[in-house]
């Protein structure tokens, strides 16, 4: 909060030890996309994987003058048929993916377990109704 898109990009650049060749933006948040645009070098690429709101303002002139490629990936395209085949063929055991189950009454404990996943080993925490 309170950091401009340019400043956020500069912070990313500093942490990375210089401008990025490619930035992967996974949130889809407008300010994050803009920060990614300000973090890449001349001729770099910003690859947006996150799905954001339908209309956004982006620093077009920065993209244009720095010849930055802006590319998008709709991350859900064609994923379900493949995932279903993997489950059907036994490659993925869905029971192993649900690591914890809680009743609705223990929902707070479920969220705590998820938040502490490094300690609890939580993969998928399920809250079950009646």
Concise synopsis of the structure shown:
This protein is an alpha/beta fold.
Explain what this protein looks like in three dimensions.
The structure is a single chain. The chain has helices at residues 5-16, 30-39, 60-65, 80-88, 94-97, 107-115, 117-120, and strands at 20-25, 40-48, 69-72, 98-103, 124-128. It has 130 residues and is of the alpha/beta class. Strands 1-2-3 form a three-stranded parallel sheet, with helices on one face. α1 packs across α2 (30-39). The model has no long low-confidence stretch (mean pLDDT 91).
- Main β-sheet description: 3 strands, parallel
* Uncertain parts: none
Strand residue content: 15-25%
Number of strands: 5
Ends distance: 41 Å
Overall morphology? elongated
Q: Numbering strands along the chain, what is their spatial order in the largest sheet? A: 1-2-3
Number of helices: 7
Helix content: 40-55%
- Sketch the topology as an H/E string, one letter per element: HEHEHEHHEHHE
- What is the residue-mean pLDDT, rounded to a whole number? 91
Rg, please? 20 Å
The helix/strand class is alpha/beta
